[in-house]
Task: structure prediction
Amino acid sequence: MNEAPFAPRDFPWPPSSDEDYRQEAVVRAGNDLADRFARVRLLVVDADGVLTPGHMLYGPEGEALKSFHSRDGLGLVLARAAGLKLAVLTGRHSDIVARRCGELRFPPVKRGRFDKVEALGEILAETGCRADDTCYVGDDVIDLPALHQVGLPVAVPCAPQEVRHVCLYVTQARGGEGAVREVVDLVLKSSGLYGLALERLRDKAWQPTRAELSSDHGRGGDPA
Result:
């Protein structure tokens, strides 16, 4: 007996309205802070402790592994689809971080930079964004000088007290476990861009290519 061909069911997309998403952000962060998130045009994140849990696993030839969270990755894809500029600023010169950023298609990656204010200035120049419209997510005292420069400084919960003290928001999720996604969602939902990002996510032009996703079996192709 021949089965009927598969017919996908219609469903609402985006699942909620921009107004509902904005209210989610207000409930999470408060109205004033949601307004600050709405002004963000550039998201700069530290790598170890923010984009990763901060563990450094070494093999006989040096650093071997880092752990990234898939929800953070999809959040950064959504951010790019919504038009946000993205950058990673890290004190370690990690090829693994550069590779992950290549998969997610954002070029401003500053590695091996303890001079984070100078590196932040380079990112602002390269992206054409202002410090007041920038959110920086950090986790340790090395991030303090850069956190003082931006309009929206954010920390992860394990950051030292002096770091959390200068930040306007501390994520509920830990670094490497969804903290970056939490920040991206707040930016997009506060600004009315979350629905746009979801719409674009259905377009193959905004989705990672097969070559970019092939890193499980090697380097894959160059990022688009």
